[in-house]
Every structure is written in C-alpha cells, then in structure tokens.
Amino acid sequence: MSTFTLTQIITEMKACALTAGFCQFKFGKPAHINFDHNICYDLLNIDYPTSLIVPGNREVHTFTATLARRHKLANTNGVTIIDDVHIYMTALEKKLWNFLSCVSVGGGSDPCGDTIPKSQIKIVRDKGLFNDNLVTLQVQFDMVTALGGGSTDACGECGFYDDEYEDPCDPCGDATTTFPEDETAAPS
Prior knowledge:
Layout: H1 6-19, E1 24-27, E2 43-46, E3 50-54, E4 58-70, H2 85-104, E5 122-129, E6 134-146
Helix pairs in contact: 1-2
C-alpha cells in the first residue's frame, strides 16, 4: 500500500479522469460549477475530502464526486416518450468505473497502491442540476492509503481493504504508527 499526499492523490485523479474520457476535471465545491461558464462536459468534479486514521497505519479519505453531462434542453418527441436521461447516466457510469479502476491501483503504476472498497461506493443519480441543466451522478467513495506524512508501514504487506478480507497488517495495530515532528510547535 503506497503513501500518498492529498496533492499526489488529486494529481493522480486528474490523470485518471482524462484517461477515463472526461473532458474536464475540477477539484472544489460542486456549487462552484455554476460560477464557471467555460466548462467542457463531461465533467468530473471532486469535492474536498474528509479523512479518518484507522488501525494498520492507514488513512481513509472519503471523497464525493460529481459527474456531469449537459442534458439536451428540448425533447422533440414530446412527453409521451420515455426521457433518454438513462442513456446519459449509463455513459457517465462507464466513465466512473474506468476512473475508479484507474485510481484504485495508483493509475496502474503500483499494484499495491490506493484501494477503493467497492462495497463503500454510493451513487445518487439526478438531472436538472445547476444552471446548465445537467444530468449528474453524485458518487461517494473511500480511498485507503498508507498513513502519510512520514509514517511507516512495518508490515509492508499489500492487500485490498475489505471488511471480509483479513488484512495481514491488522496485527501490527497502531503501535507501528510514527508521526513526523510538528515543525510549528513551539520549542520547549
């Protein structure tokens, strides 16, 4: 399991978004999509993540992503035909899975890289959002990395983070976690 800073994770996500076929990648609040009128769709917007430190020298980053595509404004078939929004949602889902597959293995460069537990992925589908009348998938997922910022992984094992999978590093517990010195602390 690799150690990544937030900057490295976002850089990797941007590369994976382009590889997965998104026209544009943004990192910030989804509501700010409305302020940018030069957006290329399909868009992948990653909101600022939260993090949790867990046993086994791991950091769990929880990300919320908004995948967006413009919905055509006029339906020439009238209201008696089923809306074609499901076609847009399916296309966005394919890009989502390609993106998550790329990011979950560190872009393919490290087979023991970041891990995204599939059982933790939540997808909410919607349409008509924001000023651009968008079809969206709002996706929440966790990314598990080795604890960053100077920590060590005494176990050195790699494996998928899954509640049903027995991680070989669990026996190590928190005792192997080391933290960098606080450079901002006042000298004693």
